[in-house]
Write a structure and sequence with these properties.
Structural class: alpha+beta
Mean pLDDT: 90
Shape: globular
Number of strands: 10
Distance between the termini: 33 Å
Order of helices and strands: EEHHEEEEEEEHHHE
Helix content: 25-40%
Largest sheet: 6 strands, mixed
């Protein structure tokens, strides 16, 4: 994560859920300290609730907590997934940029979920289960990546993110892939001020271990 200001409104977190891997990436509306403090509060709720609930229920709990706070014009988009040892990815996308699930012969955008979090008390959330194969890679990112603009006003876009992945040598480690995407954004926007927080989270399924 590279914040736009000294404190960012983007956040990410992960935790061990009895052998499964839970991970979340969120983007709070706004920038700076106020957005950063709200992001920290959401992470607290996530860490408390996630071990006892599925993704859709966890997201609904966060939404209820934020709505009760009544924070005007404050909302968050987020993506929360749980990856099991057997490769089942259960996820909920709450108004977030659809992550790219990249396999050997396919690319999927993960869209199932619901509305942005924190504005609508009546919001409901769904989840989907996707079975991953060994080597499948999930690229999750904030809109600071896809909407980063160059001097001509052209946005970086999802397709350039995909190009970064497809141009990568086979077997490149997730951490290296994060750096590759970040470098591509910097090169694309060279000379332009950063307009938003930039966050990339890459998760790869390595297969079930005995």
């Amino acid at each position: 994560m590279v914040p736009c200001l000294s404190i960012g409104g983007d956040f990410f977190d992960y935790l061990d859920l009895d052998g499964s891997f839970g991970f979340v990436l969120g983007d709070v509306a706004g920038k700076g300290a106020a957005a950063g403090l709200l992001g920290a509060r959401i992470q607290e709720i996530f860490a408390f609730r996630a071990p006892d609930a599925d993704p859709a229920t966890t997201v609904a709990t966060i939404n209820t907590a934020m709505v009760k706070k009544g924070l005007e014009a404050r909302f968050v988009t987020l993506f929360y997934g749980i990856l099991s040892p057997g490769g089942e990815l259960t996820y909920c996308n709450a108004g977030h940029n659809p992550p790219l699930l990249i396999g050997k012969n396919r690319v999927r955008r993960l869209t199932t979920g619901g509305l942005i979090v924190g504005l609508f008390d009546e919001a409901t959330y769904e989840q989907e289960v996707v079975t991953l194969s060994q080597g499948d890679t999930l690229v999750t990112f904030s809109d600071g990546v896809s909407e980063a603009s160059n001097a001509k006003g052209t946005e970086f876009g999802d397709e350039r993110i995909l190009e970064c992945v497809q141009a990568s040598p086979s077997g490149i480690e997730p951490g290296e892939l994060v750096e590759q995407i970040m470098a591509a954004v910097r090169n694309f926007t060279v000379g332009e001020p950063q307009g938003d927080d930039i966050t990339v989270l890459v998760v790869r399924y390595r297969g079930e271990t005995s």
